[in-house]
Amino acid sequence: MTSSVPERADRAPLTTDELAARIARDIPAGSYVNLGIGQPTRIAEHLSPDAGIVLHTENGMLGMGPAASGDEIDPDLTNAGKVPVTELPGAAYFHQADSFGMMRGGHLDVCVLGAFQVSVHGDLANWHTGDPDAIPAVGGAMDLAVGAKEVLVMMKLFTRDGAPKLVPACTYPLTGQACVRRVYTDHGVFEPGPDGVKVLETYGVTVADLRDRLGVDLLV
Question: If you count DSSP H runs as helices and E runs as strands, how many of each does the chain have, helices first?
Fold first, then answer.
């Protein structure tokens, strides 16, 4: 059977910046968005200034701009990951308790989080691997997972050891259940759901390759 999925097997997997740009294209204009600590913050560099997208940080800011550099750096102006950022016209600051109230109260349209694992049903595990030496770091992820209207995940599809991170069931402690709407990875874009994982596009591999490597039901 011929796949209807756009398979770009003749190119390399997406780089982090290419993946960030790919996600940025899918964020609706005018959205209020939280970008999780780590790779998701790179999405800020690829948002169109004309889209009217307002970035929220859990440490108490609306109207965050791209990362700061050079003379733009202000040590008192950072995102939740302590990375220096810029502010856009109209930016506002508030108490962190108010920020979490926004997160929990359903006021954010989109959040983009990293993940250790995502299950075929959209369960999210991104705060602890269970390793005795690992430092648990849930932060505001649980609040975002249940409070944002749409949860997107940005992650590598495989670990450094080659183990899949898109799995039949999460083996790490859960952040949220059935909360992930779409998963963006270096090898493809996926939509988890009750019937399996829908493949939207692939990079550097075919759907057949992914079926062999992932061990989950892939729908096209």
Answer: 4, 14
The DSSP line for 148-184 is SSEEEEEE-SB-TTS-BSEESS--SPPSBSS-EEEEE
Three-class SS state of 187? coil
Q: Report yes or no: 117 and 167 within 8 Å, Cβ to Cβ.
A: yes
d(CA 195, CA 28) in angstroms, rounded, equals 26
Contacts of 106 (CB under 8 A, 6+ apart): 147, 148, 149
Residue 186: alpha-carbon gap to chain centroid = 12
Place of tokens 């204009």: 29
Known catalytic membership, residue 191: no
Distance CA 204, CA 95 (A): 44
R_g of the chain, CA atoms, integer Å: 17
Whole-model pTM: value is: 0.94
Q: What is the pLDDT of residue 1?
A: 45
pLDDT at 3 (0 to 100): 62
Structure tokens at 204: 């550097």
pLDDT of residue 133: 81
Over residues 12-37, the pLDDT tens digits come to: 999 999 999 999 999 999 999 999 99
Tell me the C-alpha to C-alpha distance, in Å, between residue 112 and each of 9, 40, 67, 74, 137: 26, 6, 17, 25, 16
Which of 7, 18, 45, 58 is catalytic? The answer is: 58
Within 10 angstroms of residue 56's Cβ, the number of other Cβ atoms is: 25
